[in-house]
Amino acid sequence: RRSYHTVKALYQLGPQQEVDVKGWIQSIRLLKKIAFIDLRDGTSSKTLKIAIPIRDSSPLDLLKSIKTGQSISVSSAQWVPTPHREQPFELKVIDPLKRIQVLGDVTPQYPLQKKSHTLQFLRTLPHLKHRSNYMGSLLRFRSHVELALATFFQQEHFTKVTPPLLTSSDCEGAGELFKVDSTAASAQSYFGRQTYLTVSTQLHLEALALALSKCWTLTPCFRAEKSDTNRHLSEFWMLEAEWCFPKDVHELTLVAENMVKAVVKSCLEQKDELIPHIIPEECEPAEIVVQRWQNLLGSRCWPTITYTEAIEILATQHKKQAFPKYEPKWGSALQSEHEKWLAGEYFKSPVFVTDYPRDCKAFYMKQNDDEAGRETVACFDLLVPGMGEVAGGSMREDNLAKLVQEMDRRQMNRKGDLDWYVALRKEGSAPHGGYGLGVERLISYLYGNHNIRDAIPFHRSATGTIE
Ligand code: 4AD
Ligand code: MG
User: Fold this and answer.
1) Near ion ligand 2, which residues have CB within 5 Å?
2) Structurally, how many domains does the chain consist of?
3) Domain that holds residue 25
4) CA–CA separation, 357 and 360 (whole Å)
5) Does the beta carbon of 432 sit less than 6 angstroms from any atom of ligand 1?
6) 103 and 223 in one domain?
7) Distance (Å) from CA 229 to ligand 1 centroid
């Protein structure tokens, strides 16, 4: 026999003879002849209703002392079906003095109450906010998404790998590295070698893909981002996939699209479990979120345009004063306002933008055969409404001479930290490519909360707290 049931198990199992549960008080309502406790235990967005008939005054002291936030255990409760109510059953406790025990008290200052709190308020309580229905649901949603991603890659015959997080190279070449600091004894870092926290595990994944054909990983990545926006974190989780023998960049986008759709499908299958019951005003209501999931699956293929086409579309719109800050110009990176407009206003759908100018992207991307002056690379970004870029990937330059030339053009230290990477092109090299997806960005987008700080339990950013 189990020592106690979780809330999630009780909803799944159905009627039980006697039930023991443990959890936290969401709310208590004390009436003349009965008291109702709403109990949550964090395993589900649902709560348990516990009904306590009051036959005499003996349990009153106990019931009056029960407060939102306390942890309690309840033993030998009876299962009572309530088919006409919102919750299909409740638990009846006849002898509360014997059956209910307070395990952990709260102070009078306990800040979370049964009502819906604003996100702004919840964010001021990094150590407590996850107990709110909304934030708790967001973490369960994230856990579900991670499992759905793993299932997708397992089905597609990708091997899950574990690349290092300490590295000597700047994969993206953007200089946003956190340096591993020196020990007190040494003037240099990490046992005398220049070492950083990884910004992307891609370079190591390329080596692994050349051994395993298809691999993927989910790791923390670190970027000393100065931009403190609702889509940037200094520590975030990236899903990266890398595989050999894709035909072209369109094959990469197809895998990315199928991956996101597989996640969305599994979210829809479990929507009753995943959607929060108490949603702050500033967040999207449940119907809108579910509708978005359905729309994402409904459309056959998300649109794909080239960067050059994107600039043409944006330039027409720019004439109408849509982007007062940044004029869209061939050769410049797309700004987040451009990305959001393209996906949110123009296509009203996720959209793949391919073939960016070489100088907008990283050194490892495969060069296209373009006319001079308009050099592009075989890459893509996946843009979604409200968020802009959620994923980016490319075919990798597998031509040794071109890779070396590009690294030299960028004045990179090719012979030092990256000679192993360059050497991969000499030993059984193969056409390969892949992408990286920001997990918090995907979670926020799917969940309808456009601030990625809520999609990670304890967020790290340039100006945030660090507890
Ligand atoms: O576009 P990025 O920089 O691409 C790479 O790092 C490639 N090496 C990935 C690959 O091909 N294997 O980052 C990939 C994704 C972005 O699209 C974005 O969603 C997310 O990672 N990302 C961030 N998310 C939160 N905070 C940040 N500071 C992020 N920087 C990138
Ligand atoms: Mg990118």
Assistant:
1) 392
2) 2
3) 7-110
4) 5
5) no
6) no
7) 15
Calculate how far, in angstroms, residue 379's C-alpha sits from the geometric centre of ligand 2: 10
d(CA 243, CA 433): 6
Distance CA 275, CA 279 (A): 9
Closest-lying ligand 1 atom to the alpha carbon of residue 227: 28
CA atoms within 13 A of residue 60's CA, in its CB half-sphere: 7
**Is 383's C-beta closer than 6 angstroms to any atom of ligand 1?**
no
Asked if residue 463 is part of any domain, the answer here is no
- Would residue 465 count as lying in a domain? no
Distance 395 CA to ligand 1 centre (A): 16
Q: Is 238 in the pocket of ligand 1 (CB under 6 A)?
A: yes
Residue 466 belongs to a domain: no
- Is 391 close to ligand 1, i.e. is its CB under 6 Å away? yes
Task: Please name which of 238, 200, 235, 137 lies closest in space to residue 459, comparing C-alpha atoms.
Answer: 235
How high is the pLDDT of residue 249? 98
pLDDT for 182: 56
Q: Has residue 263 been placed in a domain?
A: yes
Structure-token pair, residue 438: 């920001």
Q: Is the CB of 434 under 6 A from ligand 1?
A: yes
User: Do 267 and 392 fall within a single domain?
Assistant: yes
pLDDT at site 320:
86
DSSP line for 206-271: HHHHHHHSEEEEEEEEE------STT--SEEEEEEEEEE---SHHHHHHHHHHHHHHHHHHHHHTH
In this prediction, residue 70 carries a pLDDT of: 98
Q: What is the pLDDT of residue 108?
A: 95
202 in contact with ligand 1, CB cutoff 6 A: yes
What is the number of the ligand closest to the CA of 242? 1
Same structural domain, 383 and 431: yes
| Number of the ligand 1 atom closest to the C-alpha atom of 232 | 26
Centroid of ligand 2 to alpha carbon of 12 (angstroms):
41
Complex confidence, ipTM:
0.99
- Average pLDDT per consecutive 10 residues, the chain (467 residues; last block may be shorter): 87 93 97 96 95 94 96 97 93 96 97 90 95 95 98 98 94 89 57 87 98 98 88 96 98 98 97 90 91 92 97 93 89 96 97 97 95 90 97 98 96 89 96 98 94 95 82
Nearest CA to ligand 1 atom 24: 438
Ligand 1 pocket test target in 236, 454, 459, 460 with most atoms within 8 Å of CB:
236
| One domain for residues 141 and 14 | no
**From atom 20 of ligand 1, which residue's Cα is the shortest distance away?**
438
State the CATH number of the domain containing residue 333: 3.30.930.10
d(CA 139, CA 131) in angstroms, rounded, equals 10
Q: Can you give the pLDDT at residue 183?
A: 61
The CATH code of the domain that includes 43 is 2.40.50.140
214 and 71 together in one domain: no
